[in-house]
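Reopening this one. Same input as before:
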Amino acid sequence: MGTEFEVTVSADTSADAAALPAPRAAVGPGPVTAPIPLPAAVEETWQRRYAVTVATADLTIVTGVIAATVVGVFGSIFNASHDARLGSGIAAFVLIVAALTSLRAWDERILGTGSVEFKRLGRAVGSSAVALALVGLLFEVRSIRLWVFVVFPIIGALCFLSRWALRKFLHRARGKGRCMQPVLAVGSPESVADLITRTRRDSHFGWEVVGACTSTGRGLDDSPAIDGVPVLGDLDAITTVVGTGTHRVVAVAPTPGWGAPRLHRLAWQLEGTRTELAVDPGLMEIAGPRLHITPVDGLPMLRLTQPRFTGVRRVLKHTLDRLGAAFLLLLAAPTLLAIAIAIKLDGGPVFFRQERVGVNGTTFRMVKFRSMVVDAEARKAELAAANEGAGPLFKMKDDPRITPVGRWLRRYSIDEVPQLFNVVTGRMSLVGPRPPLQSEVDAYADAARRRLLVRPGMTGLWQVSGRSDLTWEESVRLDLRYVENWSMALDATILWKTVGTVLGARGAY
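Same output, byte for byte:
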């Protein structure tokens, strides 16, 4: 879920059987059993409706933009006859629809979650544009360049925006418990409990664990349920439970006694059904470009590459950070000046400077707009008993040290804008782990110290995932996920999500 890695064995999408026979033999050592005929109840009609909606939106955009081009909406830009525009339009429509279909850009299993949906859409638009360019070159159609460099980018941009809007509606529904995929969790009681926690925390992913089969047939402390999810049996009961047709996904978490033969047998039994098999490889918080599947004599091996903290991509990140920070400072200069005057009128200095720990343990002076009274640090000891923060953090929702102006600044994270100066000087990044205090670093466990391998950031996964509402463990986990899986695409996603988080003032105090 989220940036975690999953090995997913997708079942065939052929029609489901009409009736459910008697329960089959348990999944375990022995002869290979036949596929499980599941009833139609396992189908999620909302998935098909959503896929149809996405496809309809795409085709509407493609048809509308091409039709507008053919009838001459772009005017003199296209120096071509109506017949030439019509021929190019028909070719463009056929190519882009063929690309969307062949690249499975409407596959319901990838819609609404993750980046695969947008990658396939981008490849479809890009490949069809290249194909049209080759056709134009072959028939010496001069106006084809405008189709490739104007019409197709417009189609791609509108389709991206359309899918993003539809995904927002889907996420809103999932936040209310609708449009979810029922999941059967398989594993030890501890691993099942962890899976339940993660699916509830990442509700946008669309998984809802509704049942479990554990190695003991019971939950934690021999209870009949795990976090409210009923335990339906042990590992030998999986086939019978899946045969009820109430689960869309079987998620296998680490568990003793569950090896490759049993996993193979379960995968074969799910063939011909609409139930998918997902396997947790046990590599926590590692995903994306660091994971590769390498077959060794038919055995798929997960090859884990080392994270890269140097190189061209890092230089590019630092360059974009500094240029972006400088541009934002120039753009926001009048507003920053007005805020500085308001803080000064409130009494005391405009800026608050504090020593923080940066990359590789080096320290620097982080600058923020002052949002507290001048003697806030001296009064901190008096409020120790009211601390609501977890771990070494000190947090209070109604901190009496915050000034009236500071409360408004904190609500929308405006107090952190001066950190752009730290980004310009190279001590911070726009995106990265939260900059810690030395006292926090002194309390770090070994794993948490990996946060210091990269520059701290003004925003990060912690910012877009709850901010001050997160526990200490959750903030560390998110920072480590960022360190392990950094990419330019991840930075762009976090920056995009930061805008909505700040404007919504979620988790800020």
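So the earlier flakiness isn't reproducible anymore. For the record, The radius of gyration is 27 Å.
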